[in-house]
Model the fold of this input.
Amino acid sequence: MEGEDAARRRRQQQQGQAAAGEKEVGQVKEKKVKRKRGRVELRRIEDRTSRQVRFSKRRSGLFKKARELSVLCDAEVALVVFSPAGRLYEFASSDSSIEKLFGRYWNIPNTINDLNIEARDSRVDCNIQLGQNEQSAPDPVSELNHIAQWALESNVNKMSMAEIRNFEEIVKDALTVIKNKLMMKVAGLPQKETSPLKKRNWWSPEPEKE
Amino acid sequence: MEGEDAARRRRQQQQGQAAAGEKEVGQVKEKKVKRKRGRVELRRIEDRTSRQVRFSKRRSGLFKKARELSVLCDAEVALVVFSPAGRLYEFASSDSSIEKLFGRYWNIPNTINDLNIEARDSRVDCNIQLGQNEQSAPDPVSELNHIAQWALESNVNKMSMAEIRNFEEIVKDALTVIKNKLMMKVAGLPQKETSPLKKRNWWSPEPEKE
DNA sequence: AGCTATGAATAACC
DNA sequence: GGTTATTCATAGCT
Done:
């Protein structure tokens, strides 16, 4: 951010320079000098066309800035923009999808999540594990069913926000399991463990790689 | 965005002006002229301290731009940034909380599903509608349960790849429904729709009592 | 969509 | 955290 005084001073200085330059060349460029812009006002642009053009330009600028921040400063950035017309534009830094980053956002408030996970009904855990290792219940849908039942019995409507977030993660995990299993099954591939469900540590501070 | 040629041309022009200005005053300001900055390189800043300073400044700049875009162009913007240290910074335009805007984000992909939704087993559709209109089963989890049962009865193990994908989407939809409903319920937010997404929200449009 | 003058952001320095 | 020189973004045109 910048103070008003400094800004005004700089502006005057620049105009001074410009004047000097013009004096040097003897007013030759008089024709184009009057494209005065003026400070940008922080309120909704009324003209529809102009607003749309502004949106396009500023949007690309914003996304560029977002990308720069994520690259230069090694930060994780997620950006979602809806145009007035309802179009979606999104950006997520490098290794994080929007979903992951916002999952992280939701997880931040409750670091105690681990405890909740441990504390949840063992049937769910059990079923997921079984499904993954393909021991007794080869039908993945039953797992989802169990999860739903578990949630139902746990009186979802009275869950706290933290619990809901946790529930969301659990169901998402289950969905991943199911998807993987079905994919493997249909493709006729051996069920190899890819990674995702382990411990959800993808958001933890990781050692840096250079 | 701007072309290289134009940029270079303008830079030369400006430096020409500056040179003219200096010549006018006779090199009096020689002492401070050499703060050369150079183009910003698009790669991670190595120096830790510098990176942190850059992060602070650029972050505030980015958030300012985001706010400007949302105000000037009447767009909805959600921005989440995690510093390398793991700190969270967030911005959401005016009337949208981060959760709402990203709920909206998650709902977008469903556009493609309209046809699929119509085509799939009517029992599911029916149950969802019932749940939604709170006639018999206001508990969103039951919807998930029904979907799971439907998939189970449909002999999932013999589904084609396309069908599995579709199933995955359906479950994801259900998850979205559940999540949003719970979020709204717990946060006590009114379910207000601002934009054109409404038509395909087969699962949420009506405000709830309770 | 492409250009340029101007305003704004910010890298380098206190 | 403040200042200034410089690069960068973009408003106004075409």
Observations:
- Residues 2-3, 6, 9-10, 13, 32, 35-38, 40, 50, 53-54, 57-58, 61, 64-65 of chain A lie near DNA strand D (CB under 10 Å from a C1').
- Chain A has seven helices and two strands.
